[in-house]
Write a structure and sequence with these properties.
There is one protein chain. By secondary structure, the chain is an alpha/beta fold. The protein contains eleven helices and 17 strands. The chain folds into two domains: about 180 residues, Medium-chain alcohol dehydrogenases, catalytic domain (Quinone Oxidoreductase, Chain A, domain 1), CATH 3.90.180.10; about 140 residues, Rossmann fold. The longest helix is centred in the middle third of the chain and has 13 residues. The radius of gyration is 20 Å and the shape is globular. About 45% of the residues are buried.
Length: about 350
């Protein structure tokens, strides 16, 4: 089968590799569409600890069940599916509690988190049947490929619902794929003031299109004054960090209201530099959010089907043969206003 293979930093090639054979409990999925994640881009430029030469990236994909392994009924052959790429054991304490994203044996399709599992930048992938969801007829393959990236902010917003304030304010650091999805979820949840931050004007324009009420390039005096005005001097209720820059996190935490919450999603720089005194005196809360559960994934697909989250205006499609060129463009920062590139196989 045809696959886009990572061979070394900044180099991807099309190769003919063996078509996988589904194991017990697995199905063979013919990939129809596969999105490029920011983590794939980190792998491409050689900055990912879980992506290695001779790997096939890609964990945001949809397709058609083309074969089954032992223990799976062949009645599902031909079914349109979206794949939840986080593989879990189902037996550990976390899995038993429903927190499959915390599974002690977790693996990720298209990455080397634990055992390497080849990904969706290929014609076929074998995946556990329990990791597939039926793709509704009114959701096309490209839109369905957004289910995985959307599931991450769905999980994060679900985890902090207790601090949500209807009509409140949220500051979103980063207006790329994740940032734009957070903008749309905040809009759907009733936040009145949705502030998006990014250094790229194209991405900020996309954030405005998706519902951001304020878009800015940095936390300067002007933005601080605007936030003071919007929040009557309280500060923002919630900060979501999709970037992971140390200095930016620190600046954002300074404009949280008392008892405000900052959620960490991005990990560009894992180190923290925060004012612990302010966290104590203002009873601030910080929490991390990683990946998603099966219920998050199902809700993500439902939001796409109902049109609560829009993807078409910020999606650009390409073929696998264009992979090297697309990744080079993304790495250079000149990819244009689209926040998601999706490979279309057919």
């Amino acid at each position: 089968m045809k696959a886009l293979v990572y061979v070394e930093a900044k180099r991807l090639v099309i190769r003919d590799i063996d078509t996988p054979v589904p194991d017990e409990g697995e199905v063979l999925v013919q990939v129809m569409a596969a999105g490029i994640c920011g983590s794939d881009l980190h792998g491409f430029v050689g900055r990912s600890a879980i992506r290695f030469p001779e790997m096939v990236f890609g964990h945001e994909f949809t397709g058609i069940v083309a074969g089954v392994g032992d223990g799976v009924s062949d009645s599902c052959i031909g079914e349109r599916v979206v794949v939840m790429p986080l593989l879990f054991c189902g037996a550990c304490g976390y899995c038993q509690e429903g927190h499959v994203n915390m599974c002690v044996n977790r693996r990720l399709i298209g990455a080397g988190l634990g055992e390497v599992v080849q990904g969706g930048f290929a014609e076929y992938v074998s995946v556990p049947r329990r990791n597939t969801l039926k793709l509704p007829k009114d959701v096309d393959y490209v839109a369905g490929a957004w289910t995985e990236p959307l599931a991450t902010p769905v999980h994060a917003m679900h985890e902090i619902q207790a601090v949500r304030h209807l009509g409140g304010s949220i500051l979103i650091l980063g207006a790329g794929c994740q940032g734009n999805l957070f903008v749309q979820l905040a809009r759907a949840q009733g936040y009145a003031d949705i502030i998006a931050l990014d250094v790229n004007e194209d991405r900020l324009n996309s954030a405005r299109l998706m519902g951001a009420t304020v878009a800015a390039t940095g936390i300067d005096k002007s933005l601080r004054n605007r936030i003071t005005e919007l929040t009557s001097g309280r500060g923002v209720d919630l900060v979501v960090d999709t970037v992971g820059k140390r200095e930016l996190r620190a600046q954002a935490s300074e404009i949280l209201r008392r008892r405000g919450v900052i959620v960490l999603v991005g990990l560009s720089e894992p180190e923290l530099e925060l004012d612990a005194g302010r966290f104590v005196n203002s009873e601030l809360t910080m929490r991390g959010s990683w990946c998603y559960t099966m219920s998050d994934f199902a809700l993500s697909l439902d939001l796409l089907q109902r049109g609560v989250v829009e993807t078409a205006p910020v999606t650009k499609t390409a073929t696998l043969e264009e992979g090297q060129k697309i990744f080079e463009r993304l790495a250079s920062g000149t990819a244009g206003p689209e926040v998601k590139h999706v490979f279309v196989m057919v």
